[in-house]
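During the reporting period the student researcher (J.K.) took over the structure-prediction task from the postdoctoral fellow and processed the backlog of single-chain submissions. One of the processed entries is reproduced below for the supervisory committee.
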Amino acid sequence: MFLKGKTALVTGSTSGIGLAYAKALAGAGANVVINGFGDPADIEKERAGLERDHGVRALYSGADLTRPDEIEAMMKAAADAFGAVDILINNAGTQHVAPVDQFPVEKWDLIIALNLTAAFHATRLAVPGMRAKKWGRIISTASAHSLVASPNKSAYVAAKHGIAGFTKTVALETATDGITVNCISPGYVWTPLVENQIPDTMKTRGLTREQVMNDVLLAAQPTKQFVQPEQVAALALFLCKDEAAAITGANLSIDGGWTAA
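J.K. obtained the following structure tokens:
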């Protein structure tokens, strides 16, 4: 319970990697603020489960992270409830796939707003409180696509490369303030979002489930194993420890060897 008394805010945390972050942080004693969209009953079940299973307080914010005013309201609500945000995990994101000359402008704007600009707003609002306490952890979910590119993903790759650069800059700005700023770059992670893509891909390409998993989704991962959300969360949890205080400005890959080639 090394995070007892601390507060963590995780964006995009009603499912998948974000929810795994929230569970790991709550398991270490942190109060948590979760955020994201989804079925209200499912979200409340997860929020209540965090409190029940870990003996912490858990709040939910439905802030739309494409709106700076709603991010400000979310950060203020967290500070009002818990005093400050000690750990910020910028995790919310979305994806769209299309060639650049066919990429819908509104999709580009959405991806940049949610995957990159939202991290800027949450971070700028979190840093003053962390500076005041001389302790803070800022972690952003980047991607293997923060290091390498794939065709038809111009907005996502641009946003994730942006997250990597943003992380380095803020790490330098806060290096003497007791704050560390890092990003984690997963490869393909086994989440409901990924699993739900498999049937459509099987149908459109005439492939078996195993072929889709190994030859399409895991084509770039030498281990031929999906990263698990809990593995990503465990890395984030380590970054919150005092033993990780010298790790800042880092982009940490957890991608089954994808970016080793």
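The committee noted the following: The mean pLDDT is 96.
J.K. will present the remaining backlog at the next meeting.
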